[in-house]
Amino acid sequence: MKFNNLHSCHLGPEISPEQFIPEHFFLFLLKGSMTSYDGYKHYNMKPGDYCIARKNHLVRYTKYKDEGQFEKVIIAFDEIFLKKFLERHPYHAEPTDHKDSFLFIEEDKLINNFVQSLEPYYNGTEKLDDIFVDIKREELLMILLKNNPDLKNIFFNFNIPHKIDLEKFMNHNYKFNISMERFAFMTGRSLSTFKREFKAIFNTSPGKWLMNRRLQEAHFLLNRENKKPTDIYIDLGFEDLSHFSYVFKKEFGISPSELKNVKKVDSKLI
C-alpha cells in the first residue's frame, strides 16, 4: 500500500510516552522504521508491518525517520473500551504463557482494507468524531479476533501483575525510565509495600539504588567497553545528556567526556 501526504493517526486514549505500555494498542507503520527492546528481546518494524503492543510491559523504542518522516497508525484498546466490547460480544479469556511484548500480525486482506479505510483520516482530509472512533476500534478488534481467536486471551485478561521476585526484577529492569509507582505495580505490590521490601533487600531507597546502579553501569561501559556518553545515557534511563553528565561527575569526580579523554591518553601511553 502506498499513501501520500502522510500523517500519524491515533484512535483512542493517548499512549504514555514513558517506557511502559499501560494499554494494548495496534500499531501499523506507514513510514520510517523502529526497533524496540523489552529487556529480553529486540523487535524490528518496517513500513507495512502490523503488531499488537501488549499492556503492562516495559519497552524502549528507537525510531528511524525516512526522508525526515516517521508516520504510524496507533489504535488503543484500553480496558474501559474492551469491557464494553465484551458486553456486546462475549468472549472467555483463558490463561496464556505468551510473554512477548509485541505480537506481529500477518498481512491480511481484511486488515489491509481496514487500514485503507483510515487513509482520509491520516492524510488530513477528514476528522473522526468520538463515536466513529469507537466504531472503527470495534471493527478492527473484531477483525483481529476473527483472524486469530487466541488474541482473546491477551485482550480480555484484566488481571493485575502478581507478586514476583523483587530483587531479580529490579536487577534486570533498572535501565527502564519509569516511575516508582510503575515498578511497584509490575512487581505486584502497592507503592508502600514496594518501598518497604526494597529497603529490606537493598538497604537503601529505590531512587538512590536506581541512580547508583545506572551510574555504575555507565562507568563500566565508558571505561571498559569504550562507549560514548551519547550512546548510553538514554539506554540507562537518563532523560537528557546534561543531567547524566552532572550526576556522573557528582558521583565519580569526573565527567563522562573527561573519562573518555583519560582513556584515550592512557591507551596512547601503553
UniProtKB/TrEMBL annotation:
The keyword Transcription regulation applies. The keyword Magnesium does not apply. Keywords: DNA-binding, Transcription, Transcription regulation. This is AraC family transcriptional regulator. It comes from the Bacteria. Transmembrane segments: none annotated. Residues 164-262 form the HTH araC/xylS-type domain. The lineage of its organism: Bacteria, Pseudomonadati, Bacteroidota, Flavobacteriia, Flavobacteriales. It comes from Chryseobacterium formosense. One of its GO terms (molecular function) is DNA-binding transcription factor activity.
